[in-house]
Amino acid sequence: MRSYCALYVDAGYLLSSSATRVTGTSLRGGVRVDHQALIERLLAQVEDDSGLPLLRVNWYDSGGNVNGAPSSSQLAIGMLPRVKLRLGRLSPAGEQKGVDLRLGLDLVTHARNRIVDVMYLLCGDDDLTEAVEEAQGHGVQVILVGVPDAEGRPHAVARHLQREADGLILVDTAAIDDTVHRAPPFEPRPAAAGPVPDPALDPIPDPIHDPTPGPIPGPGHVPDQVAASTEAPCPSPADLAARPRPAGGTAPSHTSTSSSSSTSTASPMSSTSPTSPTSPTPSRAASPDVARSSLVYSSTTGRSSEPHLPAPLEATPEQIEEVCRSVIRTWRASATEAQHQALFAGRPTIPSDVDRALLMDLSARLGVYEIIESDRLTLRHRFWDVAEELVGRTTS
After folding, report:
1. 289 burial class (0-12, 13-18, 19+ CB within 10 angstroms)?
2. Of 132, 274, 320, 391, which residue is least crowded by CB atoms under 10 Å?
3. Nearest to 104 by CA among 90, 91, 119
4. pLDDT at 228 over 70
5. What's the pLDDT tens digit per position in 301-320?
6. Other beta carbons within 10 Å of 284
7. Cα dist. 329→137, 200, 382 in Å?
8. 83-90 and 180-182: which strand pairing?
9. Which residues, at least 6 apart from 394, have a Cβ–Cβ distance to it below 8 Å?
10. What is the number of other CB atoms lying within 10 angstroms of the CB of residue 203?
11. Do the bridges between strand 54-62 and strand 83-90 make them parallel or antiparallel, or are there none, so unpaired?
């Protein structure tokens, strides 16, 4: 029986890491790729490394259209000889779904059926480590293929995955430099004669419900209906705290704080329980035990208790600043006018591809696989400050 090798490509890793090498950021939209030439170079490299003919290139990516349907470029990739297109889908939040699972299942199934003898895995995701181990258990060699960074080291390949694999090779740098290029700057079309109304600034009147619209209210305007319903404002927590407590130290009932002229409406989820006059309810703020309470033990489902964990690595403000500026400059260079307008219109939601590039770039700079939550929040908050500086708002 003739032996074969096969190449399993995580397209997200390949293209994002190649973009990092070319532009300094993992934003896939910042590069243009000659997919056919790149795949042919990868195919030749693994055949030369293994000394075996290549059975097939398995190309894994999330579908570029709605419901995981392939984009035009993905359809072209699927039509290439000896290329199998394996697509997942994008969630509403822009996250890949089903891609890693497809890849892992294929590794195990092909190894169990002895379809190939040597598997080349172009990926860096630690989530595939168990699938690699399972494939090895069926007598198949699994060799990682990493994308080199500017220093010639494998970019964003998990150490755990490297440790379990049978070897690691790097994609030929010339193959990337010849087929992956910086995206050309967007050239706006000539402006149309006359001003174009902006729906965000000049809302279109509704002739049915508002046949004679008046002036647009300012930001401080309060509709009459709302003003009428807010004549008796709800007391603030400070007002409630300043009121005298009933004798016995019991907390005042919520129903007694309403004015006699206003109607109290109870929530369906709320209820009032009677309080015995001989058993007053103690105040939580006055209890010293409550004030001194602290977390004694906590665990997370699926994780063992580790009382002596190393302190998480935190990003410096300089690292966060560098990542934000690099991603925004790359995005701005090729973004269309519509994308510029949509960026701030969708605030605070960052476009999924941009957000993914921010996290991947910061992870690469820190040399860690997971970014702590505080760094994620700081990174996304700083993104908008830098975006306003480098891009500028298109609407006021």
Report:
1. exposed
2. 274
3. 119
4. no
5. 333 333 444 556 788 999 99
6. 10
7. 46, 26, 14
8. unpaired
9. 340, 341, 343, 344
10. 11
11. parallel
